[in-house]
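ok so dumb question maybe but i'm new to this and my supervisor (M.) told me to 'just get the structure for HipA-like C-terminal domain-containing protein' and walked off. so i did the thing. is this what she meant?? sequence i used:
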Amino acid sequence: MQLLLKDEPILDIQENGTCRILDFDRLPFALRKENVTFVDFIEWASNRTLSIGRSYAKEILNSLRLSQTNRFAVCKACRGLSLEDAYWIRQDGDEKTWEEVNLFHNPLTLFVTEISLSGTNIHYSAEAAGQRNIHTPELTTLGASAKGWIRQNGRLFLHKIGKYEIPADQILTSVDIPHIHYRLSADQEIASYLTEERKEWINGVGEAVVNSELFTSEEISLVTFEEFAIFCSHYKMNPYAEAERIDREFYLKMQIADYILNNNDRHEQNWGFLMENTTGKLTGFFPLFDHDHAFVNYDNVMSQTTEAAMTLEDAAVRAQEELRLDLSRLTEMEQPQLLNNAQWDAVLKRSDRLLKIKFSNRKFKGKKIFLQ
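this is what came out, is it supposed to look like this??
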């Protein structure tokens, strides 16, 4: 068995479990250590697959007759293919090439997309879709919300349940913080993937289906902070200090963004870095995304992106004292349609708190130092 980056083998796994590194500089960050064990490889591969807590995870796995408890077996069944990066697993006897198997260009198994969004198979039979040759990104798409990848005019879009992505996008655009843009999904884009019951439920709970375009590619991969922290632990480095060193300005902006949005879901898989596939080097942070759990209606949300325990407010105040971000445009923008009056008033109150900060004498001097 081999782990490949596109068509280049980078790790060889023998039948006895011995792992031989073929290209250290382009290994997944969690595996960049002097001696990679089979246990390390299993853990990395298992972490690539969807959590059983994701909406309709059980339905997806059942439809493909895959284990609900053995995530490594799930990873092997789909070759570990993902849209987050260009890594994949080729088992002995598999003669496929990257061109034949990659998810970026090849047709997807559409009945799995239906299950991902509706919880049921609407139009396709599993046998007709080719159950023995699983070709879907849904098994390696992380997160808890119902979601599904749909190709439109040769481009890939992630459609998901999560109306708050829209006002979060509008707010972050107004304050010029890099993020992924979302839009409401048009009916003609998703109608064939949703049952009538599912449509009624979405409307009934006041939710909406939104979408964003894929921002990774065959050339650029995503590295979560979770994986980066594992890498740092191998070399006794502080992952938070290293994250700040890579791009302190973006790191500080993230603190401000999460406070303004009152976002309680910036866990370690929701922020991180982009990697250049040809070199294996980090090029900076990836844009902020996944704000469908923002605008929570309670205060003192704890930050998940600082080393020390502190609230989102404390982290944002510290960041704003140094960064001096211009937030005045927030007070000039119209209330987003998908936020109620209380939610919007809370956004303005939080931004006003940051606008009233008395800046220290030191001025921000940002540096961007990407890992070599």
